[in-house]
């Protein structure tokens, strides 16, 4: 499958690129500066995700898109991810690409029920407040599209080794999500890319 990874220069994006390559997919990465991206065996497209024309060039010819973008200032209210999602969805529509997977976060939408006490009552009300506003806008852009989307909401991400454990939590059972390694998140998302089990769903995914 031809897969575009947006946000490939970040830690989660890098894990997704590694996992997709290991699974035999043909990977294109969309990054700001091509000269700074050193991964081999990938096609590199440089551009700004807020530039609709650049996104269109990157999306053309793909079978699926995985969006690993994340804001760098979670305490500030911005619309970066919302605007990026708008451009990605539009480019996918224009190019006839239907499959979209996007990393969101625990605390967005109904997944607030999966947030631990400290996350819900401290972080989400202070440090993560701006991020959650943008995540809500981004999710609305994607959910209102006619694409075959999956929103994946992880808790705290770590750089730990892959455990092979990525559990999908119900928002009704009171289960709490605490942390997951980026490698496990990437493995879950590439598997979901291939299976389509959670198409048009937003899922909380965690290890512990």
Overall description:
With 208 residues, the protein is α/β, with parallel strands linked by helices. The protein is built from 6 helices and 10 strands; from the N terminus they run βαββαβαβααββββαβ. The chain has helices at 11-22, 52-59, 80-95, 117-121, 129-143, 182-195; strands spanning 2-6, 26-31, 43-46, 64-67, 99-103, 148-153, 156-158, 167-169, 179-181, 201-206. The longest helix has 16 residues, at 80-95. The chain is globular, with a radius of gyration of 16 Å. The mean pLDDT is 91.
Task: Note the main attributes of this structure.
Flavin reductase, riboflavin reductase (NADPH) activity, Polyketide_Oxido-like, 208 residues, 8-stranded mixed beta sheet, 10 strands, alpha/beta
> How far apart, in Å, are the first and last alpha carbons?
31 Å
Kindly report the spatial arrangement of strands forming the biggest sheet. Answer: 3-2-1-4-5-6-10-8
Give the name of the CATH architecture.
Answer: 3-Layer(aba) Sandwich
CATH topology: Rossmann fold
Q: Compute the number of structural domains.
A: 1
Query: Helix coverage percent of residues?
Result: 25-40%
Helix-strand sequence: EHEEHEHEHHEEEEHE
* Rg, alpha carbons: 16 Å
Strand content: 15-25%
Give start-end ranges of low-pLDDT stretches. none
| CATH superfamily grouping | NAD(P)-binding Rossmann-like Domain
The tally of strands reads 10
Mean pLDDT across the residues is 91
Helix count? 6
Question: What is the 3D shape?
Answer: globular
What class would the helix/strand composition place it in?
alpha/beta
CATH class membership: Alpha Beta
Major sheet details: 8 strands, mixed
Protein name: Flavin reductase
Organism: Acidisarcina polymorpha
Domain NAD(P)-binding: 7-194
InterPro entries: NAD(P)-bd_dom, NAD(P)-bd_dom_sf, Polyketide_Oxido-like
């Amino acid at each position: 499958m031809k897969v575009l990874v947006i946000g490939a220069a970040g830690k989660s994006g890098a894990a997704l690129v590694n996992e997709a390559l290991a699974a035999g997919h043909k990977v294109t990465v969309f990054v700001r500066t091509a000269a700074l991206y050193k991964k081999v065996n990938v096609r590199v497209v440089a551009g700004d995700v807020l530039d609709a024309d650049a996104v269109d060039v990157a999306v053309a010819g793909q079978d699926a898109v995985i969006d690993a973008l994340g804001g760098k200032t979670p305490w500030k209210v911005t619309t970066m991810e919302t605007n990026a999602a708008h451009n990605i969805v539009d480019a996918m529509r224009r190019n006839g690409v239907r499959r979209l997977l996007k990393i969101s976060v625990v605390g967005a939408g109904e997944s607030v029920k999966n947030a631990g006490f400290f996350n819900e009552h401290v972080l989400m009300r202070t440090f993560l407040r701006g991020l959650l506003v943008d995540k809500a806008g981004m999710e609305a852009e994607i959910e209102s599209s006619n694409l075959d989307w999956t929103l994946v909401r992880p808790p705290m991400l770590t750089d730990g080794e892959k455990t092979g454990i990525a559990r999908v939590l119900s928002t009704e059972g009171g289960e709490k999500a605490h942390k997951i390694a980026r490698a496990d998140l990437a493995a879950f998302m590439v598997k979901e890319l291939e299976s389509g089990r959670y198409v048009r769903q937003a899922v909380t995914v965690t290890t512990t």
